[in-house]
Amino acid sequence: MTSDAPRIAIIGAGPGGLICARILQRHGIAATVYDLDASPATRDQGGTLDMHPDSGARALREAGLWEEFLKSARPEGQQMRLAGRDGRIVFDAVPPEADPAEGNPEIDRGQLRAILLGSLAPGAVRWGHRLERAEVLGDGTHRLHFANGATVGTDLLVGADGAWSRVRPLLSDAVPGYTGVTFVETGLDDSDIRHPRLAALTGRGTLMALDDNRGFVAQRNSGGHIRVYVGMRTAEDWHRRAGLDLADPDAVREALLQEFAGWGESLTGFITDTDTGYTNRPLYALPVPHTWTRTPGVTLLGDAAHLMSPFSGMGANLAMLDGADLARAVATGPTVEDALTAYEDVLLPRSAEAAAGAAEGLAGAFAPDSADQTLAHMTGRD
Q: pTM higher than 0.70 for the full model?
C-alpha cells in the first residue's frame, strides 16, 4: 500500500479475521478487530479443525505461525472411520506415521484462536463491541456504530462476522437459508476413562455413521473430550412440531432415541451417555453462488461471504485463506480499491465452487442411501 495507511476495521475475531490482522501486522499495517464477545473466554469455540496444506496451513505459514501451530496440532486426529448403523466399522483410514507437518493435522478451534490472538499486538482486538450498523459516508469510508456507544471511522471495513453478518447487507441482500439438516450437539468428557467403549469406537480422529437421512459424527478433541453431532434431515422446527422442550434433556434424549430406533447400541450410546447435554444446531448456508457488486471500502471473508455446510471440511480453512489473500492484497496493492478488486476476483469464484461442493456433500451425507454414498466416496469408488 503506497498511500497513507488506511484505517482498517475487521468485524469478528474468528480465524479469518484474526489471520488477516496478523498478516497485515507483519506488513507493518495496523488493523483493529472488533468482536461482540466480552472476552476470549465468553463462548466455547467449537470442535476440531484440520488444516489443509493449500489453505489453512498456507495461511498459518504466511502468518509466521506454523511452528507454533505444530506444538498443539494432533496429526493422529486425521484418522477417519465409517461405521454402519449397527456400529460395525466398515472403513478405517489411519494416517501413516509421518512428519506432523504433512497431511491435514487437527487442532481444537480454541487452541487455534489462542495462537492467533497471542500473535497480535496488545489492543489489536476490542472485546465487547457488537456492531449495530455501518453508516456509509461516501468515498469508501464508513462510520461504525457499536452497541456500547462507541463509534469508529474506517477506510476499509472487513466483515468477518460469520453467518449472521451485520456487514453483509452493505454488499448483498442474501441471507442464510436452512439446509434441511439439523445437528444436535452433545459430548463425552474424559472419554477414555469414563466412556472407554465409545472412545474406542471413535478412534483417534473422526467417526461417521450415516444412513437413511440420519447419522452420527463423533470427533476426538484434545483433553480426552469427544464432541458428537447427532444429525437428522428434518424440519427446522422439528422440536416444536413434536411439542419438545429443548431445555428438557430427558425429553430430548428420548426424542433422539426414537429417531434412531433400530440403530446399534454402540452408536446410540453417544446419545444416552452424554456429559454435556444437548444443543440444537440447525445448519444454514448462503445461496450458491453468493456474489456482489464491488462496493467501495468494504468486503467480506469467511462465513460472512460463503457460509456453507460443514460437510465441505472447508469453512475455517477457506476463511483463513480469505484472510491471508485479503491482507496480502492490501499490503501490496496501490490503493484499497485495487486491493479489494484483486481479492474479490479470486474470492468469489473460489467460494462458489467450494459452496457447491459443500451442498453436494451434505445432500449425499443425509440421503436415503447415504451409507452407500459415503462408503463409495471414502473408498474412491464414487
A: yes
